[in-house]
Amino acid sequence: MPGMDATTLEPTAVRAPATMRRLLLVVAAAAAIIAAAWWMTGPSPKSVDTGLPDAPPPLALPTEVDKDAPVSRAAALLATGKLSAARTSFIDIVAETPNDVPAQIGLILSGWKGAGPKSVERDMSQLASEYPDDAQVALHLGLVRSLLGENRAAREAYRDAIEFGQAAATPTSLRMSSLADDLLHPGGFQGYPPLLIQPREAAPAARAGLAKLVLATRADDRLAAREAATALADTSDAMSRVAAAVAIYDKDDPESSASRLEALADNTTLDPAARDRARLQLALATLWGGADREKGCDQLDALAATTVDPGTSRLATPIGRELCSSDPAAMSKP
Predict the structure, then answer these.
(1) Structure pTM?
(2) What secondary structure letter does DSSP report for 2?
(3) 281 touches 245 (CB < 8 A)
(4) In contact, 136 and 60? CB cutoff 8 Å
(5) Cα-based angle 295, 298, 303 (whole degrees, multiple of 5)
(6) Band of the pLDDT at 51, cuts 50, 70, 90?
(7) Is 189 among the domain residues?
């Protein structure tokens, strides 16, 4: 923590969020109370967590965290089911840096078997109230609720993660936003259809605007991408108009992007290379949602056989081979 020394450690610890103070201070007392209750009442009643999953969701780490960082090692323990060891590691991290949000999330998740899934959900809800605009917290709250079968509440948390992540627009928040969008829309490919147009393919006057759009789409910054797309929507440069149609892709409304791409592909007044690229991007948009993979694969096959643009021709065949022979759920993000 910047500026921390021995004289500032104690005041910082006092400012630790309420959830973390409770988790760190009452574990031993709670265990003693439970043991005493069981001794007094005989065999314990069936837990409210009976029938729920045995393992917590994984911890999605910030993009900038090194794989050898303490929180990364603790997350690996969590992912492999070593919850007790993970909990010890997360406690050490939170004790040293109380405002470390990933470590706080990990500490809560590591209580899945000890405190129980219901307690984990309660503590994640409390953490969300302490970090009301944090995409990472909202994402993990949604993951916990999904495992508990609270699907409506999980979807609400995922939508919060998308909103918070796009608003913050940091590499980590945008990643959490993209992951939440994937979880809201299972069955398709992860992430968003790739933009297969380079600024050098546009007219010189349009290249700066297209470069801005390309950077936004590569970062999964959907708000910036849509802003750049709006600026390019009425340009006379056909490749830029195709790129703008790709950039507005929305998993809630994929048809908006697809319809614009289809109109460009059918526009005989456009340059043939731009029309071919619109056909390629339309096939990708069709494939991405997972609802009609056969149609998207047929579009790629037809394009590979009829394209006149060398750049599109080089892309269509390998893309079709990769996407049309793969299970979207098993694909990593492009």
Answers:
(1) 0.80
(2) T
(3) yes
(4) yes
(5) 130
(6) low
(7) no
CB contact set of 175 (below 8 Å; sequence gap of 6+) = 60, 62, 63, 165, 220
**Residues 179, 239: one domain?**
no
User: Please, which pLDDT band fits residue 324 given cuts at 50, 70 and 90?
Assistant: confident
Token pair, residue 53, equals 């999953």
Domain count along the chain: 2
Residue found by looking up tokens 């006092």 in the block = 14
Do 180 and 165 contact (CB within 8 A), yes or no? yes
Question: Is 243's pLDDT higher than 80?
Answer: yes
Question: What element of type H or E holds 273?
Answer: helix 272-288
Examine residue 251 and state whether it is found in any structural domain, yes or no. Answer: yes
Q: What is the domain range of residue 276?
A: 201-329
Q: Which residues contact 53 (CB under 8 A, 6 or more apart)?
A: 117, 147
CATH of the domain at 111: 1.25.40.10
313: its two tokens: 């021709």
* Distance separating alpha carbons of residues 184 and 45, to the nearest angstrom: 36
Per-residue pLDDT at 36 exceeds 50: no
pLDDT at residue 233 greater than cutoff 80: no
